[in-house]
Amino acid sequence: AIFGIGRATDYEEFRAAASLWDIAAQNIVYADVEGNIAYQSTGEVPIRGSGDGRYPAPGWDSSHDWVGLVPFVELPSLLNPEAGFIVTANQYVVRPGAAPFLTGDGDLGHRASRLTELVGSGSGLTVDRMQETAMDTRDLGAEAFVPYLLAVPAAGDAGVEAIQDSISSWSAGLDAYQVDGESAGAAAYQATWRHLLANTFHDEIPEEQWPYGGSRFFEVVEALMADENDPWWDVIGTAATETRDDVLHRSMKDAHTDLTESLGDNPHEWSWGRLHVAVFRNQTFGISGIAPIEWIFNRSAPRRVGGTDAVVNAVGWNAALGYEVDWIPAMRMIVDLGDLSRSSFLHTTGQSGHVFSDHYDDMIEPWVDGVQAPMRWVREEIELNGEAVLTLVPEV
Questions:
Q1: Which of 140, 158, 315, 372 is positioned for an S-S bond with 307, CB 3.0–4.6 A?
Q2: What does the pLDDT read at residue 189?
Q3: Could you tell me the sign of the dihedral formed by the alpha carbons of 161, 162, 168, 173, in that order?
């Protein structure tokens, strides 16, 4: 989402400005000094004669031609909802089957649901509290699956027992289901989730379509869980007809083997962050293939990065490929419209592009820990707190 601060008090002025946004569609939220809040979907959305744009179309068939653009006034918008807040987290903003068709690839709402729960409490929504909210990692998908995992008989398998013990502790208490980077239980669960996807689908789906995880597969697997004898549970190529519990047992066993090989044989020393590694690769020299050069330009975050695809602190990974971080919230920002000087932000990796500067990577660790810097708005404050002045002098 793009978060905007309305300087005009006229909502229609905001709408007029948003109507000029004719590049990639975005979610824009707005607030002004009169207390109005709004949401607006933007971009030029084609109206197609046939199909919806999700799949290749025969270019020689004019029935697939664009016949116009969705008028701006028909794009989804919202002004001062009764709830008193607006949540946008890449979820669908129109109901399935409703017009206009914007996407078939939206998030299925787990992040948005958690944000609604946190913000909707309505108490203590300070900058500090919102910074904490931005780092929330409660996994709503895990809430649905953990009871099934814990109900599977371990059948004397010490590895399965170790995974169940770790997940059982992780799913209890005030911090239940938080995918914290230093959590052993989060590592046990996410490893089990990865192997559950592999054991359920890899035998029947081409490799290029293997499940990556995320909210879409939360929904798919949750539907399968309801039927312990669904054909998807059966593993092609074995003599037996596997059931749900067979696959869950095998997945926990595989997860234990995976974690033991990667992190050691003491479950108490496992942690999600040691698997969920974030490497910041320079997009020129950092992918050169020359190890000493890559060592100079690339940086690795401390091994305590939390989060996963479908939580508020959405730090993605692809279950088909491994545990390494593959996308991140590159910038976090909290704006206090009551006093802009109380606002905060942080981006990673650093302010400087010079590899030997202290500021090349000094924002990585604060980013990992959710620490933000003050957002200065007044010239005097900027000058008082500035560390240095960069002067650009044109060549003569």
A1: 315
A2: 98
A3: positive
